[in-house]
Each structure stands twice: as C-alpha cells, then as structure tokens.
Amino acid sequence: MTDQRPLWDDAAGTFDSAPDHGLRDAVARDAWTRLLRALLPSPPARIADLGCGTGTLTTLLAREGHELVGVDFSPEMLRIARAKAAGSSPAPVFVEADVQDPPLTAASFDVVLSRHVLWATADPALAVRNWHRLLRPGGRLVLIEGRWSTGAGLSAAACQALVAPLAETTELRRLDDPALWGGAIADERYALTVAGPRS
User: Is 147 strand, coil or helix?
Assistant: First the structure.
C-alpha cells in the first residue's frame, strides 16, 4: 500500500482552514464543544484521539479537563498538534503511529474517539476491533464519520455493520447542525457511540 504520510504532511499547513478542522470560528468551536460534552463522560476521562491530525479536538478536550493521548501517522500534523496544545492542562501526549493498530495499552481508556478516520483505514473492520480492545469496562468508542457528497466516506449503515460484532449497544446521532460544519450540508454525517466491554 502506498505511504500516505507525505500527502497528509503536505496538507497539514492548510488543514485547519476548514471550519470543522481548525475550529477557529467561535460558533463552530462552541458547537463541537457542546457535541463532545454530550457524547463523552464528564471529565476527567482518559481519551485516545485516533487520527488526531493537527490536534484540534485533542486540545479542546484537554482544556475541558480530560487526559488525552493523540495518535497520528503524520509527523507534520503532530508538530502542529503539539504547538497547538502547548499550555493545555492536563497536557496531551502525542504518539506517531498507524491509527489502525495504535501502540496503546489494552483496556486503558474510558473513550476511544475517532473523527473522519475510520473510512480511510486499510481495513475498517480490523481497526474497530483494535480500537474497541483499548476500552476499559464501561468505556465507549465514539466514531464521527460521514458519507460525503464526493462519494468518499462511510455510511451510518455500513459503520453500524462494522461494529455490530463488538457490542450489543450502539447509539446513532445525526450531525446535521450547520454550526458544526461552517454551513448547511446535504450529505450524511453522524456520530456512532459503541459500548465498551462490560467487565
């Protein structure tokens, strides 16, 4: 498989210009803050942000009081993420690695979060199995995904089918609030929450 890191390294410098990437606009930032508060446990929780990119959500959640580990395979994305997170408390930890099989300890996270990453992995079914095993009993896997107008992405139905072998309980939330995206959308965007192991 072709190494995609140079592509993402090249994109890092302008990645945050998209309203939902950099969350530079207060309206978008507030919308994402409200959404994540609804999807995640109260702080402090230990959260793995897989495919963290430039660390926008990693930093936002650290400043909410969560303990964050951000994982990405792009050195340039992580350079920006570390700079962005400077001064955050608790300070996030960033790891350069393949998110499909992150080198993190099993059963050590309250939440595994991934935004717009699962669809791009080489083997999404393997990825969700690897991610689910990182959860502590009672934890949750939060997948923010979509099937975009370009044809790329992963439909909610396809995502639900991928996680069906892992958990009896899932919750689907449609993300059609224009504030999240910097404007109205006409495609499918959603958050799927998957229950972690019971014990």
Answer: strand
